[in-house]
Automatic annotation (TrEMBL):
<dbReference type="Pfam" id="PF00822">
    <property type="entry name" value="PMP22_Claudin"/>
</dbReference>
<keyword id="KW-0965">Cell junction</keyword>
<keyword id="KW-0732">Signal</keyword>
<comment type="function">
    <text>Claudins function as major constituents of the tight junction complexes that regulate the permeability of epithelia.</text>
</comment>
<feature type="transmembrane region" description="Helical">
    <location>
        <begin position="56"/>
        <end position="77"/>
    </location>
</feature>
<keyword id="KW-0472">Membrane</keyword>
<dbReference type="GO" id="GO:0005198">
    <property type="term" value="F:structural molecule activity"/>
</dbReference>
<feature type="signal peptide">
    <location>
        <begin position="1"/>
        <end position="20"/>
    </location>
</feature>
<dbReference type="GO" id="GO:0005923">
    <property type="term" value="C:bicellular tight junction"/>
</dbReference>
<keyword id="KW-0796">Tight junction</keyword>
<dbReference type="GO" id="GO:0005886">
    <property type="term" value="C:plasma membrane"/>
</dbReference>
<feature type="transmembrane region" description="Helical">
    <location>
        <begin position="84"/>
        <end position="102"/>
    </location>
</feature>
<keyword id="KW-0812">Transmembrane</keyword>
<protein>
    <recommendedName>
        <fullName>Claudin</fullName>
    </recommendedName>
</protein>
<keyword id="KW-1003">Cell membrane</keyword>
<dbReference type="InterPro" id="IPR004031">
    <property type="entry name" value="PMP22/EMP/MP20/Claudin"/>
</dbReference>
<dbReference type="InterPro" id="IPR006187">
    <property type="entry name" value="Claudin"/>
</dbReference>
Length: 171
């Protein structure tokens, strides 16, 4: 079994991953479209996330609309919603289980049961990472293929937003 300081360092990294995973799931900027237009006064930035679409105007106004209908969404957004929530849940289970199994805690009993708990927590983190990496990769693929498609007008093209990068780093 690893030393207590190594376990604590890995636990801190896992906490950062959990917070990043939750942040990526909730952020509205998975897709970003900056339309400056003819002048900077009327610049509009449109962001699309898993749960809402937001528009930011250069005047400082900001408005968001929730995506209520699940069935009207494209399949990659439905899958991303599901797997990102699954990733958050698995990460939370991983935190709880790993806390019991760490050497620096008084929970969990003998060293054998603590090592099994750490292993189970690690499996939860690996599954959470995979279920966070798959939707971000799929979403990025959809954005890039749409961006490179010559039949799509320039005003409908988007770029990956900060939430996608947060999702990759967290995974």
């Amino acid at each position: 079994m690893a030393s207590a300081s190594l376990q604590f360092f890995a636990f801190i990294l896992a906490l950062f991953g959990v917070f990043g995973d939750i942040t990526a799931t909730l952020l509205p900027n998975w897709k970003v479209n900056a339309d400056v237009g003819s002048n900077i006064i009327t610049a509009i930035t449109q962001m699309q996330g898993l749960w809402m679409d937001c528009t930011w105007y250069s005047t400082g106004m900001f408005s968001c609309t929730l995506k209520y209908s699940v069935l009207s969404l494209p399949i990659y957004i439905q899958a991303a919603r599901t797997t990102m929530v699954l990733s958050c849940i698995l990460s939370a289970f991983g935190i709880c289980i790993t806390t019991v199994g760490m050497k620096c805690t008084k929970l969990g009993g003998d060293t054998d049961s603590k090592s099994h708990a750490c292993f189970a927590g690690g499996v939860c983190f690996i599954l959470a990472g995979i279920s966070g990496l798959v939707p971000t990769s799929w979403y990025t693929r959809e954005i890039i293929s749409n961006f490179l498609d010559q039949t799509v007008p320039e005003s409908s093209k988007h770029e990956p937003g900060g939430a996608v990068y947060t999702g990759f780093i967290s995974a």
